[in-house]
Write a structure and sequence with these properties.
Length: 300
């Protein structure tokens, strides 16, 4: 039993990795990383305009950092400050056309994810360009709404903890557990986002059970890679190599790592579906051969 599981896992991971390299997965990871970086600030501009409908008018580094708390500190700190700078500047006069432009450029990042996932799942996208673009814009709006909900949950959590501390003495010993829920909420929203992206963004039809293995692997490896990358940055000074571009280069490299892991998650799902269908085909052929033998023996 264990031997079969090991052999099956070996074949699945081997197929996923070989297909990743054979189809230039590293190049697609670079494309997703750069497109994601270019779409990052337009998305936050669109999110800021979207959030105003919910009364979110002011932005501080503390509030923004709460949204990027899963990133390594060396990336989250400069990134949160730049986001605040962009949003503060943009608040002076938000035009409708600029919001539409921000949504369009943010959707380019979704299109990059679509291209990478189509390659990973080994499918050809025959949907119209107009449909794909409107779907990407819908995902941008959905992402902005999800980020608004996430921001309320993550930003209001410290206030609720403070209120509970002021009015309940016994709650103090459980503060560590309560604060852990902030990360739990972020992981749940991340899981739902990956589920939506893997299910509906690429072409073809997939069941939820088909995409779960790659999603779980993606979240786990993202977490481990973030810890490893943060530890690596403490031992290596990027500013000595890239000078004023250090923060940008760190962000690009980190996004590249996340993109490569994201694509590999799709590759693993595709490999599992391939070997499962392959096994079902072999069993079907074996049953057909057995039936033919029975018929032949019956005639004899």
């Amino acid at each position: 039993m264990l031997k079969n599981i090991f052999w099956y896992s070996y074949r699945v991971f081997g197929d996923a990795i070989s297909h990743y390299w054979r189809d230039n997965g590293s190049a697609f990871a670079s494309h997703v990383a750069l497109s994601g970086l270019l779409a990052f600030f337009p998305f936050f501009i669109f999110w800021a305009s979207f959030a105003r409908f919910f009364g979110a008018f002011t932005y501080t580094p503390q509030k923004i950092k709460a949204l990027v708390q899963l990133l390594p500190d060396v990336i989250a700190e400069p990134l949160s400050q730049e986001i605040v700078n962009v949003l503060t500047f943009h608040q002076r006069g938000v035009l409708t056309i600029s919001v539409i432009g921000a949504a369009y450029f943010a959707s380019n990042g979704i299109e990059a994810l679509r291209t990478a996932l189509n390659k990973a799942y080994r499918v050809s996208d025959r949907r119209t360009l107009l449909f794909c673009r409107f779907q990407s814009l819908f995902f941008v709006i959905l992402g902005a709404f999800g980020l608004v909900v996430m921001s309320f949950l993550l930003i209001l959590a410290p206030l609720l903890i403070k209120i509970m501390q002021d009015h309940s003495f016994f709650i103090t010993e459980y503060i560590g557990v309560i604060r852990l829920w902030r990360y739990t909420i972020a992981v749940i929203i991340l899981f739902i986002s990956l589920l939506i992206v893997h299910k509906w963004l690429p072409a073809g039809q997939r069941k939820f059970i088909d995409i779960l293995p790659g999603i779980v692997m993606t979240i786990f490896v993202w977490f481990m890679a973030s810890l490893a990358f943060a530890q690596y940055l403490t031992m290596f000074d990027y500013s000595s190599t890239y000078a004023g571009l250090a923060s940008i280069m760190v962000a690009i490299i980190f996004l590249y790592i996340l993109s490569a892991i994201f694509i590999l998650g799709g590759e693993i799902n595709a490999a599992i579906m391939f070997y499962r269908n392959y096994g079902q085909s072999l069993r079907g052929m074996k049953k057909s051969v057995d039936r033919m033998k029975v018929k032949r023996w019956g005639k004899e």
